[in-house]
From TrEMBL:
Main location: membrane
Cellular component terms per the entry's GO annotation: membrane
Organism field: Glonium stellatum
InterPro entries hit by this protein: LAAT-1, PQ-loop_rpt
Subcellular localization(s) per the UniProt record: Membrane
Name under which the protein is recorded: PQ loop repeat protein-like protein
Domain of life, source organism: Eukaryota
Length: 262
């Protein structure tokens, strides 16, 4: 507990900024889906894997012995030091909550087929049910298993946390592949938010550095996840920007050609 009794103020400020930044970064995506009243353009597998990997991420940091030691030290250190020590957990918790809300919006504003209109790229209701069912089943299974390891098998808690971290990293790595494919097929971002990706892509690496400074090499399973997602999200961001610039140029050419053709 002595190591966290006197937290670095600069690191505390950076962690607070990251916490607020994580929340703000998801707002453009939430707002865009609500304004469009459609989640068209979001891959069901992207939403599913993002929710499940987020669940693995929050469970990972909550079961890491280092994190649990920090939580236990809150009884012996000041409120400020306790808050600083738990900011990493809060960051992961906010991230999981925000993506879980994306899943809910995806289901609430699930794109519906229009009678007589052939739209082969639209997801089906079966896929929506799979997203919800698997997400909830995974959450319940991880919760029960984590409780068992914490109270019945504490000696294997580090291994369980590492397993969750590896699982989260693999799922997060796969998460962006179906979304990249969906965006490429549609040739448009639709309900996918470019501002969200602009904030999150560099933010993933800053966040990973913050967690690495807090948890050290032993917490690689927590911060490694965000290095991987940052790289893949960067690919999706570049694709989205290229489509946006293409559409802007096309709209500009059409507006310039309108008067001359009339």
């Amino acid at each position: 507990c002595k190591a966290i009794a006197s937290p670095d103020v600069s690191n505390f400020v950076v962690s607070i900024i990251l916490l607020v930044g994580i929340l703000i970064s998801y707002l453009p995506q939430h707002i865009k889906i609500i304004r469009r009243r459609s989640s068209r353009g979001l891959s069901p597998m992207f939403v599913l894997l993002g929710t499940v990997s987020g669940t693995a991420g929050i469970a990972n940091i909550l079961t890491l012995p280092a994190s649990r030691a920090d939580m236990g030290c809150c009884k012996e250190i000041s409120t400020f030091a306790c808050t600083a020590a738990l900011l990493g957990i809060a960051q992961v918790g906010v991230q999981w909550t925000c993506f879980f809300f994306i899943m809910l919006l995806f289901l609430i504003f699930f794109p519906r087929r229009v009678d007589g209109v052939d739209e082969p790229d639209l997801p089906t209701w079966v896929e929506a049910i799979v997203v919800l069912s698997v997400s909830m089943a995974f959450f319940i299974a991880v919760f029960i298993a984590s409780v068992v390891f914490i109270y019945a098998q504490p000696d294997h808690l580090q291994g369980w946390a590492n397993f969750l971290g590896i699982t989260g990293t693999i799922l997060a790595s796969l998460q962006y592949l179906p979304q990249i494919w969906t965006t490429w097929k549609l040739q448009h971002v639709m309900s996918l938010s470019i501002p969200m990706m602009c904030i999150q892509t560099p933010g993933s690496f800053v966040w990973a550095a913050s967690l690495a400074a807090r948890l050290g090499p032993e917490g690689w399973s927590a911060w490694g996840l965000y290095c991987v997602t940052g790289c893949l999200q960067g690919v999706l961001l570049c694709m989205g920007i290229s489509f946006w610039l293409r559409d802007r140029r096309q709209a500009s050419h059409e507006s310039e050609g309108g008067p001359s053709g009339s």
